[in-house]
Amino acid sequence: MAKVLKVFDAVDGISHALAVEVASLSAQRIAASGRFTVAVSGGSLPAILCKQLSHDKNVDWAKWHLFLADERCVPNTHADSTYALVKKELLDHVRIPQENVHPINDAILVAKDGACSESETAAVAADYIAQLTSVFGSKIEFDLILLGMGPDGHTCSLFPNHPLLKVHNTSVAFLTDSPKPPPARITLTYPVLNAARNVIFVSTGEGKAQVLHDILIKNKEYPAGLVSPQTPTCWYLDAPAAKLLGSKVSS
Ligand SMILES: O=C1O[C@H](COP(=O)(O)O)[C@@H](O)[C@H](O)[C@H]1O
After folding, report:
1. Which of 30, 34, 212, 234 could join 4 via S-S bond, C-beta 3.0 to 4.6 A?
2. Which ranges carry the Glucosamine/galactosamine-6-phosphate isomerase domain (predicted)?
3. Hey, where are the domains in the chain?
4. Ligand 1 cavity residues, CB under 6 Å
């Protein structure tokens, strides 16, 4: 599937363009289906995504259903929690009904520091599958999944050469050996990523330049490059991240 690249001089340009695009997709899908189902990654993405979007009063936030594309198995108030980040950047500023927001069930966690046992992590994943099923039924088709990418090419908590890259029999998988701390995490799997109507990647900073070149120019296999949804994946990049992409980039 083709990839669409959008390159901006600075991160603020990404925030602005993303806010416009996400608001537009939200309006389209709410008009068509009465709701907007979204999954978001952690890391640098929530701050970039929400800087402008969280001020948009025209978005029908009450119709949003918000999931996490991956999450660290820590309490929802922990410094490493993606939910905590999304709460700070978005949920504290807009009115998405609480029942439409889907953090992990952190009451399951015995370990509160990210060092979860396999059985706890598996239970968190099983609960997250149930949360997805309660909204989607058996066919999980997000309107939009917003993803980041690490400098090693990982996306969600799908890391290079990890066995989870081959998991196709569940919507949510778990791992307790993440190469990036904390080790215990849950993640959406490729069947869910690839069933999405729209996938947008956001990648910024020089530290991502080499892997972006490898994925987008050399077509080397990295987890982020394997995402192949219903429509072309769209990559929002700043100039430092895009610096090795040369003239093949149309901004
Ligand atoms: O660990 C994670 O890292 C990736 C990339 O983060 P970034 O800070 O380099 O943007 C993120 O997309 C993922 O959700 C997160 O769990």
Report:
1. 234
2. 14-231
3. 3-248
4. 41-45, 70, 148-150, 155-157, 180
